[in-house]
Amino acid sequence: MKIFSVEQIQNWDAFTINKEGILSINLMERAAVACFDWIVQSFDESYCFKIFCGKGNNGGDGLALARLLNSIKYQVSVFIPHNNKPGSPDFEENLKKLKKTSVHISVLQNENSFPSISEKDIIIDALFGTGLNKPVKGFYKEIIGYINANSNDTIAIDVPSGLYVDKSTITENEDVSIIKADYTLTFQNQKLAFLVAENEPYTGKVVFFDIELSKDYEASTPTPFEYIDDSMIKGIYQPRKNFVNKGNYGYASLLCGSYGMMGAAVLSSLACLRSGAGKLTSVVCEAGYGIMQTAVPEAMCMVSGEKHIGNFDDFQHFDVVGIGPGIGKFKSHVKLLENLFKSFKRPIVIDADALNILSENEELYSSIPVDTIITPHPKEFERLFGKSTSDFDTIDKAIETAKEFRIYIVLKGHHTLIATPDGKGYFNSTGNPGMATAGAGDVLTGIITGLLAQKYSPLQSCLLGVYLHGLAGDIAAEGLSQEALIAKDIVENLGNAFKEIQET
Ligand SMILES: NC(=O)C1=CN([C@@H]2O[C@H](COP(=O)(O)OP(=O)(O)OC[C@H]3O[C@@H](n4cnc5c(N)ncnc54)[C@H](OP(=O)(O)O)[C@@H]3O)[C@@H](O)[C@H]2O)[C@@H](O)CC1
Ligand SMILES: [K+]
């Protein structure tokens, strides 16, 4: 699914109106009906709705929604902050229609005119949507403060008012004024603002409504950002052929583990095999040999070093190398990375301690082979490429870095970001907070390594890898709870995740 900028969202609106030969107010009605249907399903008639409307089209949505709720006898009142300018044409049209109903409409002049809010009131925020064009100040700020001070459920229409959709709101103005919604009912596609941690306090649960904006526009409009959904994954996943042997699915290797950290080696190796690699050699230190052979009998083992991997350089057998899970931070690992970068000309996945070693040896950056995949979590990313001023800055930095070094960056998080050498950013749609647990990253390294071995391209391996990893985690959490989920459960549910992809 494409993630559009504000300008593109506005163009999409206009394109649809043109193409379908409808009026913009018809589109507004579609949006309002979608919100209305959801509200009717979610709240019974004992609730009252207090709708705060700005004078743009977001406010117009609020007015249309007020009329619809009133038509089936919900108690509704509407509040419009005083503003000398006329409203947008569709706002004015909906105001005219609303004045013919029994809905009470008040113009808010100052804070003395704020309504009292009682227990059964639901607040609907239709002050500003995608048309926000400056930081919120003055009277609007007071209104937002008043709404946020109430503990009642607040439903934001399209976007919590005060939040920019495609750039950071937080950095521009320290003292921000943004609605803290419990629900955001948004139209059509995913929005960049909903994918970053810095906006978590504002969006609440985000619910998407398909208001049938033109599919042609979506297909033909390029955008740097996409949301990884099941239709994208369906296009990537390749079912197995019948006449095959293990040679067809590649020879993976993982350089993993050290004394006291063999769990990371076991988890990444199991995940690599479970994601379908034909065969796997795990390169481990002597101290870990017995553990690997016992815990992962399906993997072959090569030994290098005593308590941690030594100067291994025998890479030529493998189709792909994954390096990092549990290897520890040892001086000799600098040489290990140098060996790898110099002698191995096929895909590489770099994770965990291997990234920490890299970050302390910046002179190695320029020798990272093209198309390498690195899988940092935010702290590792910061150690590698420096601090960011906001989550949006991190996104830009990841994309610029991926372009500069011609690598893929899998930046792990609630919506893992894949930044690509051609300047695109893909956000993952699967996964849950239960996966913030030791070893989950090692599992992801194993999965991506296993997919690369099977000749999925680096981009496909990243996309399918993060999606499968998150989906396996979601299936595991469903059975176990997020709290009880451990990394092994992600591995154990990879099969179920594959089955779900095959069925969709
Ligand atoms: N796209 C779609 O497909 C569909 C979109 N739809 C809906 O349209 C919404 C977008 O509507 P929109 O473009 O009219 O802008 P909107 O968010 O109402 O804001 C503009 C108003 O706010 C004002 N204003 C702005 N910032 C301000 C500030 N800081 N402080 C004070 N004032 C400020 C600005 O005033 P100005 O600054 O220009 O004087 C103007 O009056 C979208 O979110 C969705 O809900 C659906 O109806 C149908 C399908
Ligand atoms: K809003």
TrEMBL record:
Domain YjeF N-terminal, chain residue ranges per copy: 9-219
Keyword list, A-Z: ATP-binding, Isomerase, Lyase, Metal-binding, Multifunctional enzyme, NAD, NADP, Nucleotide-binding, Potassium
Residue spans crossing the bilayer: none
Binding site for K(+): 58, 125, 161
UniProt-listed Pfam families: Carb_kinase, YjeF_N
Keyword presence, Isomerase: yes
CDD domains: YXKO-related
Annotated binding of AMP, by residue: 412-416, 441
A Gene Ontology molecular function term of the record: metal ion binding
Binding residues for (6S)-NADPHX: 57-61, 129-135, 140, 158, 264, 326, 377, 442
Cofactor: K(+); Mg(2+)
HAMAP family: NADHX_dehydratase, NADHX_epimerase
EC number(s) reported in the record: 4.2.1.136, 5.1.99.6
Name of the protein described by the UniProt record: Bifunctional NAD(P)H-hydrate repair enzyme
NCBIfam families: yjeF_cterm, yjeF_nterm
Functional description taken from the UniProt entry: Catalyzes the epimerization of the S- and R-forms of NAD(P)HX, a damaged form of NAD(P)H that is a result of enzymatic or heat-dependent hydration. This is a prerequisite for the S-specific NAD(P)H-hydrate dehydratase to allow the repair of both epimers of NAD(P)HX. Catalyzes the dehydration of the S-form of NAD(P)HX at the expense of ADP, which is converted to AMP. Together with NAD(P)HX epimerase, which catalyzes the epimerization of the S- and R-forms, the enzyme allows the repair of both epimers of NAD(P)HX, a damaged form of NAD(P)H that is a result of enzymatic or heat-dependent hydration.
Chain ranges of the YjeF C-terminal domain: 229-501
Reactions catalysed, as given in the entry: (6S)-NADPHX + ADP = AMP + phosphate + NADPH + H(+); (6R)-NADPHX = (6S)-NADPHX; (6S)-NADHX + ADP = AMP + phosphate + NADH + H(+); (6R)-NADHX = (6S)-NADHX
Species this chain originates from: Hanamia caeni
The family this protein is said to belong to: In the C-terminal section; belongs to the NnrD/CARKD family. Belongs to the NnrE/AIBP family.
GO biological process: one example: nicotinamide nucleotide metabolic process
InterPro entries hit by this protein: Carbohydrate_kinase_pred_CS (IPR017953), CARKD (IPR000631), Nnr (IPR030677), Ribokinase-like (IPR029056), YjeF_N_dom (IPR004443), YjeF_N_dom_sf (IPR036652)
PROSITE patterns for the chain: YJEF_C_2, YJEF_C_3, YJEF_N
Complex formation: Homotetramer.
Co-factor note (free text): Binds 1 potassium ion per subunit.
